[in-house]
Specification:
The protein has helices at 22-35, 48-58, 70-81, 101-109, 146-154, 173-185, 215-227, 249-252, 289-298, 318-327, 359-365, 390-395, and strands at 2-7, 11-17, 41-42, 63-65, 85-90, 113-116, 125-129, 135-140, 162-167, 191-193, 196-199, 209-210, 230-236, 258-263, 266-271, 279-281, 303-306, 332-336, 339-343, 352-353, 375-378, 399-404. It has 405 residues and is of the alpha/beta class.
């Protein structure tokens, strides 16, 4: 199935209520399970990934299928490692291509018994849980910060607590800070000095929480604002002082002439004079790469990006996927050592954009309908992974969507 998407003008006007952050929601669900108490979770994400994690945590069986939910798989690996019993944790074909050894190694050092059931260093896993007391481990954080976050959340429940040494070039570090901030919300103290984090044994304290909306989802509306002639757009549920590293999209898109005004749990996007600086370091916000790459493409704007050495380990091999799809509209994406360069003049594309089973590919390419007569997006249902209401929401802004088989 394909969606054929068009927009009659280049104006963006309206109000969008964004669902709760998937990243925050999934951490809160794990913490709730660890504290063994029910809490009130306002604005919980309605994403497939969050629904999958809820189902896994409610399951009474011994086999857990995380499907394509990477965060859920990683968090469940650590969660099951301290849960007494024998467990099988598996996932989709793509999940079995995403390395998990940088989490399995420290868990094994702490005393967990974990076996690879198919390919070494990759899911699925057999986990014999309940043998971890705590201690000190090094965690390689060059592929994903989620390995450290998974360990941090179980740390207070360990008899000896846990000291984590973050090694390598830490990617997505704001997500580690998000984890620690959420743990603090639920009563957990820690010390953090340089690359060492220590969490003593403690008890999580039940407490209600409001889950702010998803800044990653907001990035596609910033794309639309960048492409627009006029913009008067309000996004509900976003906070200026956010747990989320992807809130950086507000500052980054000032370069494209998008102004963000903050209100009470909302933001307002308008047009302003661009800063015209197009060198981006996305080490802390790799999930913003699709939106920013496509924004540069649609504006025929040369740009360079650093901090994206591990794009191939996302829901798709995003570096390869973005390169192939941008080529369809005359844009060159080339890597030079640690830099990725975007160049070329945008040409409206008659071909359908492939999405590679990757929700961010579908949403990032959709705003190109504003600079084309129409575009086509293959397998549009992939957005359910993080933002099930995306297609209905953009219709409110004047996008027209027709279904093609």
């Amino acid at each position: 199935m394909k969606y054929c998407i068009s927009k009659k003008d280049k104006n963006i006007n309206g109000i969008i209520h964004l669902s709760g952050s998937k990243s925050i929601s999934n951490r809160v669900l794990i913490i709730e399970a660890l504290m063994k108490a029910d809490i009130t979770k306002k604005n919980l994400s309605d994403s497939n990934d969050t629904i999958v994690l809820q189902q896994l945590l409610r399951s009474s069986g011994a086999t857990f299928d995380a499907h394509d939910a990477g965060t859920s798989f990683r968090f469940m690996t650590a969660f099951l490692a301290i849960k007494k019993g024998e467990w099988i944790l598996t996932g989709s074909r793509r999940m079995k291509q995403r390395p998990i050894s940088d989490l399995v190694k420290p868990l094994r050092k702490l005393g967990a018994t974990i076996e690879y059931l198919e390919q070494e260093n990759y899911p699925p896993l057999k986990i014999s849980g309940g043998n971890i007391k705590g201690g000190r481990v090094a965690v390689q954080s060059g592929i994903s910060s989620q390995f450290a976050s998974a360990l941090l959340m179980i740390a207070p429940c360990l008899e000896e607590g846990l000291t984590i040494e973050l090694t390598g070039n830490v990617v997505s570090e704001p997500y580690i800070e998000m984890t620690l901030s959420l743990m603090k919300h639920f009563g957990i103290n820690h010390t953090h000095s340089d690359n060492i984090i220590h969490v003593p044994p403690q008890k999580y304290l039940p407490k209600d929480i409001y889950i702010e909306s998803d800044w990653s989802a907001a990035s596609y509306y910033y794309e639309m604002a960048a492409f627009s002639d006029k913009c008067d757009l309000t996004l509900i549920g976003l906070l200026q002082n956010s747990f989320q590293g992807d809130a950086a999209i507000a500052a980054l898109t000032e370069n494209f002439g998008v102004k963000t005004t903050y209100g009470d749990a909302r933001i307002h996007l308008t047009k302003t004079k661009p800063n015209n600086v197009f060198d981006f370091d996305l080490n802390d916000q790799p999930d913003l790469a699709p939106a920013l790459f496509v924004t540069c493409a649609g504006l025929s704007q040369k740009a360079s990006f650093t901090g994206l050495e591990h794009l191939q380990y996302k829901e798709s091999d995003r570096e390869d996927a973005l390169r192939k799809e941008l080529e369809k509209c005359g844009i060159t994406m080339a890597r030079n050592d640690q830099e990725i360069h975007i160049s070329g003049n945008f040409v409206p594309c008659e071909y359908a954009f492939s999405t590679y089973l990757d929700h961010r590919m579908a949403m990032a390419f959709t705003p190109l309908a504003m600079v084309s007569e129409k575009i086509k997006i293959e397998n549009p249902d992939v957005v359910k992974k993080s933002y099930p209401g995306f297609w209905e929401d953009i219709k409110k802004l004047g996008f027209e969507i027709e279904e093609e088989q």
